[in-house]
Amino acid sequence: MEVISSSQQDDIYSAFDLSFDYLKRKQTVESQDAIEILNVVSFYHFRNIRVDIFERALENRQTSTTASTFREALTRRLQPPVLLPRFLRRDVADTEPLYVKSALRELYICSLINYEEGTNKFYLHPLVHTWARDRINPSQRKVWAYIALNTLLEAVTLPSGKDHETDSQFLRDIIPHLDECIAASPVEIKIFNSRLGSFGFIGLNLILPTMFYILRAQARTAAKCGYLYAQSGRFSQSAHYLSMVKDLMVQTLGYDNEITQRATLFLADILWGLGQLKDCITLQSQIVEVRTRRLGTFHRETLQAMAKLGHSFWLNGQYVESLHVLEDTARMSSEALGPKDLDTLIALDHLGVTLGSWQRYQESKALHEKVLEIRKDILGEDDLETLTTMSNLAMAMLDLEQREQAQRMMHLVYETRKEKLGKEHPYTLWALCYLSKVHVELGRLGEAEDMLVGGIAAGKRSLGDEHLGVLMGCGELARVYARQGRLDEAEELSQSTLRRVKESRGSEHYDYIFGMWKLGQLYELQSQVARALDAYRIALENTEARLTTEHPLSKQIELRIIALGGFSLPTYEKGADVETDVDKQRSVHDSLWPST
Question: Which SUPFAM superfamilies does this one have (predicted)?
């Protein structure tokens, strides 16, 4: 890479200064707006700047500034001005989105930006990008960084209850610009600790209306940041901003307020994605309690929260609680909302997954098939919720040894998620892990290993070493090693993964119990019966608290201990209806540790 000397840089900067001076001298509205847009994009990443960032911001600004009632007009007059470039601040009602291209043309003519061929995106040469920021007065840089962030977020609308799918490609494309803006202008909510806090938002609005609107704007900014990071799969950053919003809502509106409830439920969804299930379940349980008390058991919003709670119980290995909650939720949703309502379908799909965890595979498959047919008809085949059902159905098929059908369906899910969410999104990586399971069952061990090695590395980059998805991939890779006869490598990886599962989820979690069960089978393959019995006993001891002795896995573990001579008296009567075929002693789609 060629190094530019200080004198060369000065010469280059002088050329840029000439172009800038030309723009200033023109004194047209377009040229002045072009200068401000240049200031804004100097705080974005220099590549892949979408033109429709500014077009969407203008359209959203037009919508938000059109008062439909006297109250809205009065409220708008009381709000402090938002820091935005002038083309978004002046009367925008008659400004066409095409105007943005007119302003950008001024920058293009001066060679300060270039368009990426065949796209609606432009970029700045790195030197132009650096110069554009350097030329801003140092005392004004933080202001322009904040304006850049506001402009970017003005292009984003938070989803409402009626929204279904978003323009995920647009949201992914603007994440690098969000990163740059936040680095220059961190997002904060300055929660007040004075006695005014006891008045909440309503009292604050009456006493200090300006502070009220400032806090509301800060909350909206943090919520949009959390939403954007959630859409791109960066759940840790999302949880950071959504926690800020939730804390402010609790302090100012109270926990029972519906806005607080929605913010809390959104945060719980992100904690679910992070695998922080204890906190997730605590929040969701509180929401179910509040909504049941305020709205009633059969209200849509109560049923939505119940379905989420039941699914969290499943991921946390609390299969008894999950089955109880989801059976009730599915029944009540069907009665109150209708059997084809989208919220009913969510409850049914979650119930199908939990049934699979109880090894009720045919029932699981039937539910997923029912949900898939309706979702395809209502939402389309490539909708994200439809893809979730396809993934669940594929794993139910795999449990029933319908391997080829499972492979075709899971491949479609993986490829579509990769296109819609990106190849390193957590849910894309989850699909990759499921697809690798199918390849293992089909005997394609080399393909499965390649998928898992790359997927685990990507998961560690975006989620961290201890995330559930990363551990799931490690457990699956240990299975591949065992199938390949690489028993020592399988044992080493299994033990290290088990330690991390125990530390992060506890010894009573299903994944730890199942991991010990699989480790015992691995020891049997190595003819180490004593070590196998030790692993089985540890697994069985830990089933009592959460999994319960009624779960099929508990019975399978005990029967295996009996078969190896570990018990003199069986707890379960001889001939009990318990599956003993080692290859069928699991639900493929609910564990880190499929059978070896």
Answer: TPR-like
The pLDDT of residue 116 is above 50: yes
How many of the other CB atoms lie within 10 Å of CB of 199?
15
Interatomic CA distance for residues 467 and 273, integer angstroms? 9
Residue closest to 478 by CA, chosen among 499, 503, 461: 499
> Using H for helix, E for strand and C for coil, what is the string for 14-55?
HHHHHHHHHHHHHCCHHHHHHHHHHHHHCCCCCCCEECHHHH
Contact present, 530 and 516 (Cβ < 8 Å): no
Lowest mean pLDDT among 93-102, 242-251, 258-267: 93-102
Both ends of the chain: CA-CA distance in Å? Answer: 50
Measuring CA to CA, which residue among 83, 86, 96 is closest to residue 37? 86
- The rounded distance, in Å, linking the Cα atoms of 557 and 36 is 68
Length of the chain: 596
% of the chain exceeding 90 in pLDDT: 69
Other CB atoms within a 10 A radius of the CB of residue 188 amount to 10
Calpha distance 269→265 (Å, rounded): 6
CB 101 within 8 A of CB 31: no
Task: Answer for the pair 330, 373: CB distance below 8 angstroms, yes or no.
Answer: no
Within a 10 A sphere around the Cβ of 545, how many other Cβ atoms? 10
pLDDT given for residue 211 in this prediction: 64
Higher confidence at residue 588 or residue 210? Answer: 210
What is the DSSP-derived secondary structure letter of residue 425? S
- Please tell me the distance from the alpha carbon of residue 178 to that of residue 362, in angstroms, as a whole number: 46
What DSSP string runs through 105-132?
HHHHHTTS-EEPTTSSEEE--HHHHHHH
The Cα–Cα gap between 145 and 40 comes to 7
Place of tokens 């180490």: 528
Q: Of 71 and 189, which is predicted with more confidence?
A: 189
Is the pTM above the cut of 0.90? no
Residues 485-496, buried b or exposed e (16+ Cβ, 10 A)? eeeeebbebbee
Q: Please, which residues bridge with residue 123 across strands?
A: 114
3-state helix, strand, coil in the chain (%, to 5): 70, 0, 25
Q: What is the sign, positive or negative, of the torsion defined by CA atoms of 82, 85, 88, 91?
A: positive
Sign of torsion, CA 266 270 272 276? negative
Tell me how far apart the alpha carbons of residues 547 and 549 are, in angstroms, rounded to a whole number.
7
C-alpha triplet 346, 172, 136: angle, nearest 5°? 145
**Nearest C-alpha neighbor of 358 from the set 589, 517, 557, 593:** 589
For the range 85-92, what are the long-range contacts, defined as Cβ-Cβ under 8 Å and sequence gap of 24 or more?
A: 85/33, 85/36, 85/37, 85/39, 85/40, 85/147, 85/151, 86/32, 86/33, 86/36, 87/33, 87/36, 87/37, 87/54, 87/58, 88/57, 88/58, 88/61, 88/151, 88/154, 92/58, 92/61, 92/62, 92/65
Is 580:559 a contact under the CB 8 Å cutoff?
Answer: yes
Query: For residue 55, what pLDDT is reported?
Result: 95
Structure tokens at 160: 């409402």
